[in-house]
Amino acid sequence: MYAYDEIDRTLVNERVSEFRDQVKRRLSGELTEDEFKILRLQNGVYLQLHAYMFRVAIPYGTLATNQLRALAHVARKYDRGYGHFTTRQNIQFNWIKLAELPDALEDLAKVGIHAMQTSGNNMRNVTSDQWAGVAPGEIEDPRIWSELIRQHTTLHPEFSFLPRKFKIAITASDHDRAAIKIHDIGLRLIKNEKGETGFEVLVGGGLGRTPFIAKTIKHFVHGRDILSYIEAILRVYNQYGRRDNIYKARIKILVHELGIEKFSREVEAEWQHIRNSSLQIDDEVIEDIRSRFTYPAYEKLPHMPDELRQAAADPDFEAWRKNSVAPHKVPGYSIVTISLKPTGGPPGDATAEQMDALADLADKFSFGEIRVGHEQNLALPHVAKRDLPALWKALDKLGLATPNVNLITDIIACPGLDYCSLANARSIPIAQELTRRFANHELANLIGRLHINISGCINACGHHHVGHIGILGVEKNGEEVYQITIGGRADENAALGTLIGPGVKFDEVADVIEDIVEAYLALRERPEELFMDTVKRLGVEPFKERVYATR
Amino acid sequence: MTSPLEQKKIKIAGPSIVTANRTWDGIVVYRTATKSWSADLSEAAIVRNSDEAKALLAESVADDVGAIGPYIAPVQVGADGKIEPGNLREQIRRTGVTIGQSAQV
Ligand code: HEM
Ligand code: SF4
């Protein structure tokens, strides 16, 4: 867990009283909506189809149980009893009243939670691996660096008025769970030959209307130089970035237009000016941040406790364990992913009751800590293996033990036309129907790892470009139509999917996905060949044929 | 953001209304013929040509304390005068999400 310092607490509290005053002036008519909009966006407040939407940051995806309880409280008291976890380690409340927002912010501020950096053209919430600090083989806890960047960029003038929003993600494992290649800046924590910590820096990733996979701009930037290097990138971006056209304002467009070589030369030149400035980080600063992250007092526990051996006889437990439980860096412990993808449910939603109960379970079984991942699931990062059977039983009662992590029903979906004012088509009902079609666990397991990602418009909040199967809703003559891509991925081998053909209607989407899956099952050479491998081996043609031959 | 009034031409294809979200709580509201807002679509003022639409929108924009983000939306008016939303988006704004119960327990 991380303990905020006094500066942060003061800042967060000041923000709340400022916003209270702004809301008051807005409601009295002293401020117009045009004047108020930028102020509300600075506090995570959007206008959606049905109501205001309130987006709250969960920095690098780490939550303490009192914080999760505070989120549950906000859901219950100010909203309709649930919240929606997003792909960027945020939570959104969909029905909050403007008049009550200052109270909600105040309640969250008491536990150190805020909505800064969740909207607007600034540096957004820095995201990280949800398994940070516990993943086996991790080089170093990437949250220390996320926190360093968070502190440096929060409300920093240079990062507060960018041409467009700006997103950074950090990973410190070989397997990238933070999707760094689809971020404006992606940082991969590595060590050089001398054993010093630094980063491979990637730049220019992003989805939306013009998707790009990030490119490596520098193979090694020393940890002490990372702020100056990021600043150099931001300066070049600020200097060239297009403010005239919001579709061209993201850094990915600039990197593409200048080319990575020219862009990196410009950054290098800028960096030489500033790298030896006050931006160079002292070891003490890093050590101070490091000391604020506390790790549990792990016990020495057996790798295969009796409890686990006995529970293995229960096929339901085993089904869940196999896909929800991952190895931990400390023997005798596990990382448990909590699926927020129940059959027929909207991906990423959790009720206030579930949040409260999960906080209790985290206190009991995970040293009071919860994580939020970009797949719209949660995790308990420090569960003793002997406690797994008891935890599973408790989760199952809460509807939080759907054994589908990384399977076809573990779908990422944006809110789409059910909530979002920018949407062209619905996303959630498509996801719901697919979870029903593939509800049979044996079938889903037979299919194996397969990620479906759905967005309700080209902004790509549901990351459809990088779904193994991507579904994008568009509008055609007043009707919802869906374009299907296959072959995308968001991990260390990130790639954009390929469109398989003309869009299909709302009612046909689930049938088309079934066809694609059937084609895959027929085409794969052996059961271990994953969907992605088959697509890689054969290309999109056989899938296209299968889908359109009869349509 | 450009104000909706700066749109050069406001063209409407059929009966239309002005809708927005109420400022203090955000709920969906419709501009009425009595210069106020109602959560009930049946109380919405119907406009049938671009001049009427423009006037209704102008008056709605002016009431910035009452509601935000006003825009013109199509409706269908039945023989009995019953007003129905003219597209899926407005249908969803009127009747709510189509996803059944959220976050099932
Ligand atoms: C419901 C209100 C939302 C609105 C109005 C909204 C709006 C947008 C817009 C306009 C963009 C494109 C920005 C650009 O390319 O410059 C965007 C990107 C994005 N949104 Fe949302 N979004 C919403 C909800 C969500 C949710 C619920 C999620 C997660 C499930 C999400 C995750 C993202 C991500 C990851 C991107 C970046 C995609 C990229 O790399 O371009 N958003 N959003
Ligand atoms: S992808 Fe489009 S529809 Fe979905 S949440 Fe983002 S802006 Fe809204």
Automatic annotation (TrEMBL), chain A:
Gene3D superfamilies: Sulfite Reductase Hemoprotein, domain 1, Sulfite Reductase Hemoprotein,Domain 2
Keywords associated with the record: 4Fe-4S, Heme, Iron, Iron-sulfur, Metal-binding, Oxidoreductase
InterPro entries registered for this protein in UniProt: NIR_SIR_4Fe-4S, NiRdtase/SiRdtase_haem-b_fer, Nit/Sulf_reduc_fer-like_dom_sf, NO2/SO3_Rdtase_4Fe4S_dom, NO2/SO3_Rdtase_4Fe4S_sf
One of the Pfam families matching this protein, by short name: NIR_SIR_ferr
Every Nitrite/Sulfite reductase ferredoxin-like domain range: 52-110, 346-397
SUPFAM superfamilies, per database record: Nitrite and sulphite reductase 4Fe-4S domain-like, Nitrite/Sulfite reductase N-terminal domain-like
Domain Nitrite/sulphite reductase 4Fe-4S residue range list: 119-273, 408-547
Example GO molecular function: metal ion binding
Name recorded for this polypeptide: Sulfite reductase
Species for this entry: Bradyrhizobium nitroreducens
UniProtKB/TrEMBL annotation, chain B:
Tree of life domain: Bacteria
InterPro entries linked to this entry: DUF2849
Protein name: DUF2849 domain-containing protein
Taxonomic classification: Bacteria, Pseudomonadati, Pseudomonadota, Alphaproteobacteria, Hyphomicrobiales
